[in-house]
């Protein structure tokens, strides 16, 4: 289970330190997703973000995939937790810009303010998660941690605000959520009915064997 941790202070690197870290980073990369240092001191590279969304996302219906509930030109569907997206960003890109780029890549119509980017670290056999502020730079964090995702990974989640702020959702979004819930409820009911029907058949078969005249 993840454990919340305070944000670590930002350590500013000199141009020479950045250059050395990029060289070290690229020498350790195993998936060819290397970083590039530009003449102006800005560097570019790749980050992978795992999508861990509890609620359905709203997308343009023409781009939607999977289980959908349609409403006009929009659809809502659940994104599997196994979904990992790779983004090419620069050292100047902030967390807020990364979130917006992720949503744009998935054609998500939801307000970016509903989402937060977390970093997940493994230290001393413990998993720590920390919500990143909008002004932090994910590529810098990736550079400092190195390319190994078991040392540092990024996760997109909904904002943890305790109770769900349903008033932040539009009417079409809420209607789509209700349709999805109805569909999932019906699916679960069918599964339960089949399970108990199988139990009933086995019990009746067993009873028939016990009371069968010998």
Explain what you see:
It is a single chain. This protein is α+β, with helices and mostly antiparallel strands and 214 residues long. The protein has two domains: 15-56 and 76-162, Ubiquitin-like (UB roll); 169-209. The chain has helices at residues 15-28, 95-105, 138-145, 171-211; strands at residues 3-4, 36-37, 43-51, 57-60, 69-71, 74-77, 84-90, 115-123, 126-131, 152-158. Strands 1, 2, 3, 7, 8, 9 and 10 form a seven-stranded mixed β-sheet that branches. A three-stranded antiparallel β-sheet has the order 4-6-5, covered by helices on one side.
Outline:
35% of the residues lie in helices and 25% in strands. The chain has helices at residues 15-28, 95-105, 138-145, 171-211, and strands at residues 3-4, 36-37, 43-51, 57-60, 69-71, 74-77, 84-90, 115-123, 126-131, 152-158.
Mean pLDDT: 80
**What's the tally of helices?**
4
- Main sheet specs: 7 strands, mixed
One letter per element, helices H and strands E, the order comes to EHEEEEEEHEEHEH
Q: Proportion of β residues?
A: 15-25%
The CATH topology of the largest domain: Ubiquitin-like (UB roll)
Structural class: alpha+beta
CATH superfamily of the largest domain: Phosphatidylinositol 3-kinase Catalytic Subunit, Chain A, domain 1
The residue ranges in which pLDDT falls below 50 over 5 or more consecutive positions are: 1-6, 63-71
CATH architecture of the largest domain: Roll
Termini separation comes to 58 Å
Number of strands: 10
CATH class assignment of the largest domain: Alpha Beta
């Amino acid at each position: 289970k993840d454990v919340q941790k305070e944000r670590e202070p930002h350590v500013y690197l000199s141009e020479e330190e950045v250059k050395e870290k990029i060289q070290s980073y690229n020498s350790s990369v195993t998936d060819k997703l290397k970083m590039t240092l530009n003449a102006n001191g800005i560097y570019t590279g790749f980050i992978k973000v795992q999508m861990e969304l509890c609620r359905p996302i709203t997308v343009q219906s023409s781009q939607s995939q999977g289980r959908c509930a349609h409403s006009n030109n929009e659809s809502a569907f659940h994104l599997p937790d196994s979904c990992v997206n790779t983004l090419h960003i620069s050292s100047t890109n902030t967390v807020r810009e990364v979130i917006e780029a992720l949503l744009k890549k998935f054609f998500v119509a939801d307000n970016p303010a509903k989402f937060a980017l977390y970093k997940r670290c493994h230290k001393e056999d413990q998993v720590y998660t920390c919500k990143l502020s909008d002004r932090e730079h994910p590529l810098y964090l990736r550079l400092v941690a190195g390319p190994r995702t078991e040392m540092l990974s990024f996760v997109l989640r909904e904002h943890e605000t305790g109770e769900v702020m349903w008033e932040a959702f539009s009417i079409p979004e809420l209607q789509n959520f209700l349709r999805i819930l109805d569909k999932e409820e019906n699916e679960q009911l069918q599964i339960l009915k089949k399970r108990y029907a199988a139990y009933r058949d086995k019990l009746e078969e067993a009873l028939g064997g016990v009371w069968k005249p010998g």
